[in-house]
Specification:
0% strand, 73 residues, mainly alpha
Length: 73
């Protein structure tokens, strides 16, 4: 490997993957959910935010829909 590189002649260019970057969002989760994903993070070595993203991506790709039935009193 060279000891010195000359970057003066290098031309910059825009990142072609900007559209594929993650979008930051604020989401409120209950403590039990966060604790669950943090415990998975310890086991897998992945950050818990990535695990939540992977789970939600899997749900979206499989087009899973939540089915809830509310009881009336």
């Amino acid at each position: 490997m060279r000891k010195h590189y000359d970057f003066a002649k290098m031309k910059g260019r825009r990142n072609p993957y900007v559209g594929m970057l993650k979008q930051p969002v604020t989401i409120r989760l209950d403590r039990e959910t966060v604790t669950y994903f943090k415990s998975l993070a310890v086991k897998t070595g992945l950050p818990y935010q990535n695990l939540i993203n992977l789970y939600l991506r899997d749900c979206a790709s499989r087009q899973r829909e939540l089915s809830m039935h509310w009881r009336s009193r």
